[in-house]
Amino acid sequence: MTTLITGSIQPVSLPEPEQRLARRSQETLSHFLPGGVEPVTLRFADPRSGEQIEATVPAAAMRVLVEALGQMAAGRPVTLVPLHAELSTQQAAELMGVSRPYFVKLLEQGRIPFRRVGEQRRVRYQDLLLYLDEYERAAAAAASQMTMDAQDLGLYE
Questions:
Q1: Are 76 and 22 in contact (CB under 8 A)?
Q2: Residue 35: left (phi > 0), alpha (psi -120 to 50), or beta?
Q3: Domains in the chain, please, with CATH?
Q4: pTM
Q5: What is the bridge-based pairing of β-strands 52-57 and 40-45?
Q6: Residues linked to residue 44 through DSSP beta bridges, in sequence order
Q7: Three-state SS at 55
Q8: 2-57, pLDDT tens digit by residue?
Q9: Separation CA 62–CA 56 (nearest Å)
Q10: How far, CA to CA in Å, does 55 sit from each of 21, 23, 33, 44?
Q11: pLDDT in tens, 15-28
Q12: Dist. CA 22–CA 30, nearest whole Å
């Protein structure tokens, strides 16, 4: 089943004091990760009742949590999007940091697969990631070629 994300995709970032808390939490939780495939049981005190609550978290989910905490501790915003999610053109454009008209142009050029739902276009998040990966590889190859051309022309001294 495909999940359609409704609304805008909001990155979550932390103010400075909470970044330090995220760093400490990441360091504490990361001790459960090395090679771990077993679920981890966490215990919490309910802030309202003081009652102890347990939550058993799959190892893969712990890795995601620890990674998110590390990114947030470094001051980088985090967004969690399922790979199979379908995005509107506006959401996809926001994730890429481009205008919606430019993004629609990429779709119409066949650069990114999409499907129509009525008049709306929907893009799978996974397809967006594939496009971005290809774009980055092409940009790196172009930069490398420009460097080699400049060296051949004697522009580097």
A1: no
A2: left
A3: 16-73 (no CATH), 86-152 (1.10.1660)
A4: 0.69
A5: antiparallel
A6: 53
A7: strand
A8: 666 766 677 888 999 999 999 999 999 888 776 767 888 889 898 899 899 999 99
A9: 10
A10: 20, 21, 17, 8
A11: 999 999 999 999 99
A12: 12
